Amino acid sequence: MMLAKVIGTLVSTQKNSFLVPHKHLIVKPLDLEFNPIGNKDVIALDFVDAGIGDIVLVTQEGDAAQQILGHRNAPVHTVIVAVVDKIDVISK
Fold first, then answer.
1. Please, what CATH class does the domain formed by 2-83 belong to?
2. pLDDT at position 72
3. β-pairing, 55-60 with 23-30?
């Protein structure tokens, strides 16, 4: 899983029929201090009604995506599974 910030939406007029009811969002990976990691953005299926600016938890695993979708018919690898309200990190 990774922490990410939603930076945009993806609109597609044509897509796999199993993906039609789902929203696609563009996310940027973050570290625990909310700093961007790397220079690649990721497209993720949204299952928690996230929006632009939200900090989210993302899973990047085909099996997890298939379990969330409830089938193996859609070509999905990355899914938003939570909107993060707060992070507490204990320093040693």
1. mainly beta
2. 67
3. unpaired
